[in-house]
Amino acid sequence: MPAVCESLLEDIEDIVSVQDPKPRDLQCRRENIIPKVRKRHSTRNVEADDHPPSDSVIPGIQKIWIRTWGCSHNNSDGEYMAGQLAAYGYKITDSAAEADLWLLNSCTVKSPAEDHFRNSIKKAQEEKKKVVLAGCVPQAQPRQDYLQGLSIIGVQQIDRVVEVVEETIKGHSVRLLGQKKDNGKRLGGARLDLPKIRKNPLIEIISINTGCLNACTYCKTKHARGELASYPVEELVNRAKQSFQEGVCEIWLTSEDTGAYGRDIGTDLPTLLWKLVEVIPEGAMLRLGMTNPPYILEHLEEMAKILNHPRVYAFLHVPVQSASDSVLMDMKREYCVADFRRVVDFLKEKVPGITIATDIICGFPGETDEDFQETMKLVEQYKFPSLFINQFYPRPGTPAAKMHQVPAQIKKQRTKELSRLFHSYNPYDHKIGERQNVLVTEESFDTRFYVAHNRFYDQVLVPKNPEFMGKMVEVDIFEAGKHFMKGKPVSDARVFTPSISQPLPKGEISGLTEEFRHALKNGSESKACPSAERQKGPLSHKMAMQLPWQQGGCVLKMLSLSVALLAAFIAFYYGGV
């Protein structure tokens, strides 16, 4: 007798031989069966109606609230997750109270950010909300007590957010924390061509790599993001092209360390930047993200040329953290203060007017008063226009948490002292009276102005003229504050529109091909017609909304369904008559 798997079954019924009874014969036998009368348990049936089985929940119709903490990389991940969920049919809402599920995308850099994350989880549970956790906190420490029993999606698994949300809504707890690999080599993460919803339709955040090559003793992010893994140049260029086709006029390149880009795949940051510059339309701008001193040192000449390009902001974020070599050694930062000075001095000479932003940690373990005074002198010398001052917080599981700690009062005192120094100078006073071209991209927090940036990524506030949004405008600087300037549009100057498409409406899904849009439209129509939904059933609804990046999971689900149907048929055949 041939094996069952030797031929392809076109249908489950093909497994029944010609000698087996036909459905009509089975029906005749059923007529002679006298059904037993069972006593109804009315109370139990009412309870069952109130709490239907989890499989009866139809995914893709719930409201989801997304909260993201932390860096631009994390914000990009949040945009990708929102896009996929919206493409599947979920409604992304700005109201936490109205949402059925909260997606909390966390940051592990500092303790206060994790405290906010933990408090949000508690609040969600108090309000009986479904919860999915994402970001660096659960990726780095998934076994923490307050995370137990909750669904988690890892930083490299964001392309599977629909599956995790779907199972969570059904009442299940799911955890996906694995790394993406190709032939054993770690990849940069989820695909760059996934759907996303940009918080600002004019700004595209592109993660060029994940992880880093350092082992800083205070850093918890390394535990979550891991070793360096870069995206190929071609994929990043294609993502930029797509963004410009969707009306984006400003691109931010982000990662844990942009300077290390490409070292794992045989390329480097300048190579990527020159390729990107080729596809940036006139009037659009590129902003480079944070880079540590060791890796930018190798490319100073090329980086100066790139930062002088008219479509690249003359802006670079280079964290120094401390001006004490002994403290830097304890941090394992792999550079000395002289290296940082060399980077800053070279770029200031070769890129006139460049903005250098930096970070300082106050009160790192072992930092003496002399060490801190060296840091004060560095800030006094360079008068950084953008300075991120951080009081040291020991992060669990890091080497720095086990070091001898500086007393809390001294840490606070040093933080205040450095903050006073930073606020003692005004970096933009000398620019009053200048005429500048600025790119307008957003509205100010107080809603009174539009926010623009000049060639050096200085913030310039301009009048709220709707014609300015997404445009390059010529302004005269007439006022300067600590963190901004104010510009008056030149009366006879033209408003330059970048040679790109109209931006997507706020909240619209980016990256949807016609195939995606067709699937989304079909799913929306089925939700709008309850009678059709009853005829099709939950499975058909899910298949209508199945998008290309989920098709692998779809095949597995269909295989499981086929096995279940076959088992039901066999049980019916042998036990139903």
Question: Explain this structure to me?
Answer:
The chain is α/β, with parallel strands linked by helices. 36% of the residues lie in helices and 16% in strands. It has 18 helices and 21 strands. The chain has helices spanning 23-30, 42-50, 72-88, 111-126, 136-140, 161-169, 221-225, 233-245, 269-277, 293-296, 300-307, 325-331, 337-350, 369-382, 408-422, 514-528, 530-544, 551-575, and strands at residues 63-68, 91-93, 101-106, 130-135, 151-153, 175-176, 181-182, 185-186, 203-207, 209-210, 229-230, 250-254, 285-287, 315-317, 355-362, 386-391, 435-443, 450-453, 459-462, 472-480, 485-489. The strands form six sheets. The protein has a six-stranded parallel β-sheet with strand order 2-1-3-4-5-6, with helices on both faces. A five-stranded mixed β-barrel has the order 17-18-19-21-20. Helix 11 (300-307) crosses helix 13 (337-350) and helix 16 packs antiparallel against helix 17. The longest helix is centred in the C-terminal third of the chain and has 25 residues, at 551-575. The two termini are 27 Å apart.
